[in-house]
Amino acid sequence: MKKSFYITTPIYYVNDVPHIGHAYTTVAADVAARYHRLRGDDVRFLTGTDEHGQKVARAAEENGRSPQEWVDGIVPRWKELWSRLQISNDDFIRTTEERHIRRVQEFWSRLHEAGDVYLASYEGPYCVACEEFYQPSQLVDGNCPIHGRPVEHLQEENYFFRLSKYADWLLNDFYARTPPPVQPASRLNEVVNFAKELQDISISRASLEWGIPLPWDPKQVTYVWIEALLNYITALDYPDGASFETYWPGVNLVGKDILRFHAVTWPAMLHAAGLEPPELVFAHGWLLVGGEKMSKTKLTGIHPDQLLETFGSDAFRYYFLREIAFGHDGSFSWESLAARYNAELANGIGNLASRVLALLGSNYQGIVPDPDGAEQDPERALQATVEGAVAAYEDALGRLAFQDALEAVDRIVRHANGYLVETAPWKLAKEPGTDRRVAAVLYASAETLRLLAVLLLPFTPSACGRLWTSLGIETPLTDQRLPVAGRWGGLEPGTRTSKGEPLYPRIDA
User: Fold this and answer.
1) Residue 210 and which of 23, 339, 379, 423 are 20 to 30 A apart at CA?
2) How many angstroms separate the CA atoms of 247 and 261, rounded?
3) φ, ψ for residue 34, nearest 5 deg
């Protein structure tokens, strides 16, 4: 029986078009989903858009449109980008869809009937950009700690969820689980400290119309954050759909700025409803530009199109997960992207593929030779490097350590390029009596390319597809399954290869 794997991105707020920070999260989730498909797991990958709330209502008003017209016009921009980035999501949920609205109302009706929701007055700071209430002590010089903008003072009667009631469960059960349900460890420590002084949370707004009405009090709409969190199960046909039974609980990838909602409020909501909390909430760091978090609000958001037009989707996907340790902040610059593209993609894997395929063409008419037992220490050393790297790669992706996985792949590329220089098959081929030796060298080199195509498939699907075509392997690349496809010796002698176009043409930085 297949193991199920459910992974989600946050649903993205559609007050504006996406920037590369959103793409970073989505690509990471896509790589994880593709890796688990490569493992043969039954994968469900969800992304979508968060379309209610005050910020969206204001953006619509500023553009002279109704909120529904606004979101209907901007959502296709997000879907188009995910297509360009080769995002392989199985579902895309919009919070204005009936399937979401109906199930949100059902969820909160259950908690209201159970006595976990009550009416009370609220007064305090509110950041529209975050759509979040803050305590006065959390403000920085009176401004939002995330956006650095003045907050608004909100006073109204709202419905509250008894979040504080679940502090003991969070601290003594959920956070104490093995493996930890919140990662990295620094983020777990953050939410543990926060949960020690837990307060009840407002779940509705009385001063806003653009949202999902509370079923027992239609004059109030569900607070956008409280509503949005539920997308992870409404998309699975909660409460009694077959998908919910199959895939929940899952892995929620989020940015660290929205961790508390996902690692405190969200599991407590689920527990209150008698449901399993998420298997894992993993909070990655921020993409920094000029030392500050990339932000639409601060106008520091770079649209991915600016990078895709120059470097392509594979390089975009590769760079951010190679450059930045997932879970930590990382700085982006055009220069570092160009440098890593040329060093590791053009001169690394691209150069290796071009040389090996050209040598097969000039020496064996493109046919993969039989090594015929002529392997020597250089081949055995290359095989050992590959086998160690494959093990490290699988361990890393099981931990969502994308950078470590790509470091393991790069070890293969560097060794393989060095191996070609060491063995110099272009020289060997000119010497008499070296046919078996040349065959062993070129088989090992071509087999390395096969393994690289399999391992890099989750990261660079387009280039790997082209490489697979050049290798002439009849079984589709997407049908390969680890661990079998990661074992040395899988390339059949006699396979007809072709040189093809360069995988990664060099780019003038």
Assistant:
1) 23
2) 21
3) -65, -40
Options 52, 100, 144, 284, the catalytic residue: 144
Bridging pattern class, strands 287-289 and 251-255: unpaired
Domain ranges in the chain?
334-486
Known active-site residue 499 = no
- Superfamily of segment(s) 334-486: Isoleucyl-tRNA Synthetase; Domain 1 (1.10.730.10)
Whether omega before 18 lies within 30 degrees of 0, making that bond cis, reads: no
Residue 44 to residue 248: CA distance in whole angstroms: 10
Average pLDDT over every residue of 2-30: 92
Q: 149: Cβ–Cβ under 8 A, 6 or more apart, which residues? A: 127, 129, 143, 297
Name the active-site residue from 55, 100, 293, 415: 293
Catalytic member of 79, 271, 296, 303: 296
- Is residue 127 annotated as a catalytic residue, yes or no? yes
Strand ranges inside 267-346, DSSP E: 280-284, 287-289, 292-293, 330-331
For the chain, state the CA radius of gyration: 26
418-476 confidence digits (pLDDT tens): 999 999 999 999 999 899 999 999 999 999 999 999 999 999 999 999 999 999 999 99
- 3-class SS string, 74-117: HHHHHHHHHHHCCCCCCEEEECCCHHHHHHHHHHHHHHHHCCCE
Torsion angle of C-alpha atoms 388, 392, 395, 400, degrees rounded to 10: -160
From 36, 100, 147, 256, active-site residue: 147
Whole-number Å distance between alpha carbons of 442 and 206? 71
User: Can you tell me which residue has the tokens 């959502």?
Assistant: 75
Sort strands 217-222 and 213-214 into parallel, antiparallel or unpaired.
antiparallel
State yes or no: is 464 an active-site residue. no
Residue 143: strand pairing partners: 140, 150
